[in-house]
Amino acid sequence: xxxRRPLWRLPAHTPSSGALHAELAPGSSARVLTQGRxxxxxxxxxxxxxxxxxxxxxxxxxxxxxxxxGSYHYCKFxxxxxxxxxxxxxTVGSLVAVAGETQSAVDVCEMPSLNDDDDDENTxxxxxxxxxxxxxxxxxxxxxxxxxxxxxxxAARETKDTTGGSLNSSSSESRDRLGVVMAVAFLPxxxxxxxxxxxxxxxxxxxxxxxxxxxxRGGDDEGEGSDDETRKRLxxxxxxxxxxxxxxxRTRAHGDAATCLAxxxxxxGFVSGGADGACVRFxxxxxxxxxxxxxxxxxxxxxxxxxxxxxxxVHAAGDVRALGGVxxxxxxxxxxxxxxxYWDGRVRLFExxxxxxxxxxxxxxxxxxxxTCVAFAPTRGGREWAGHAGWLASGSRDGxxxxxxxxxxxxxxxxxxxxxxxxxGRLERA
Length: 430
Description:
By secondary structure, this protein is mainly β. The protein is globular. Strand 17 and strand 18 (337-342) form a beta hairpin. The two termini are 17 Å apart. Helices cover 10% and strands 32% of the residues. The strands form six sheets. It has a four-stranded antiparallel beta sheet with strand order 1-2-3-4. A four-stranded antiparallel beta sheet has the order 5-6-7-8, with no helix packed on it. It has helices at 127-134, 146-160, 171-176, 227-237, 411-415; strands at residues 19-24, 31-36, 40-45, 65-68, 78-80, 95-99, 106-110, 138-143, 181-187, 199-206, 210-217, 249-252, 258-263, 269-274, 279-286, 296-304, 326-331, 337-342, 346-351, 360-365, 371-376, 392-396, 401-404.
């Protein structure tokens, strides 16, 4: 076993709020996004990126931009690399989805364009100039179901009402409410079934156990024009998504709060995890759109678990480690396996392919507290991933990170570029 030390430390958020999530900005090796429970999402610029693309030097203060959000709880942000609604590059910037100020809402924002070319030449004195030059993310839509919006409006009216009274809602309205958003993820959309070329798919998990799919549509572009004119027309159409009162698809997937989501890299499916200890696997089929109706079908394939907690060091009643909830899920890019991090500290591995039986493959025990994040290395990532392709990393509330060499991808699949669908069911142990 090898111990590794951090290259740098960044006081990105106040100690009282803590840092909830961090990742490299989409398409950048020198911008780091951080999120705290102080309601902010920040972008930091690093300098002197290493030859392998890692940010070797610590980020500079102040941050390049700061986005205020409603993320005061456990909902981590999600990102989507910039591309046009029709699949061509350079029309719409990278997107970020984060919990909105209204607890049930998901805010979708376009991040300022990132240019890393001059990062090595910039000095610390340029940090303020970088902040003013980049600006802040622009909100494109706030996704919230009609019942949740009405409930939030009624609550606001009651707060202002000096006569008192209680907030009442009909039983049908209560059933339609989604509750607090717990997790978000972008679902890649296959291009073949999108004749309008104008939609982005976003998954959201809620505390009521519901998982839903939202689609943002920019509409068909009309006429000829420059890239700037095309970009302007598309952006003018995007806010129409704010008038969506209901998700494109929704289902009650969990008996308790739905806590985490992970979509596969090709938009063929996704996995949700919940406080009930279950992982639910879904298959997505994209079809032709019919007017305002998005052509998509979502099928529930299998529910995995719940499993009995396995942490022998826990004796206190009510300790989260004695519960069987799921904290994080991840799907490997070859669509063959997915991993789930559990509150008991275990990391469990399952088959993912739509035609596989979905059996549990392994259960790893290393962490002494909840396994709060899991991630796979690319199965085909070039020289920087040599010898580590497809590896699994897990992080825990106990402050440890573990690396696991699991089911290495076959050499012939890497040579073909990994274009299979992950459904052949053939796996080789490490």
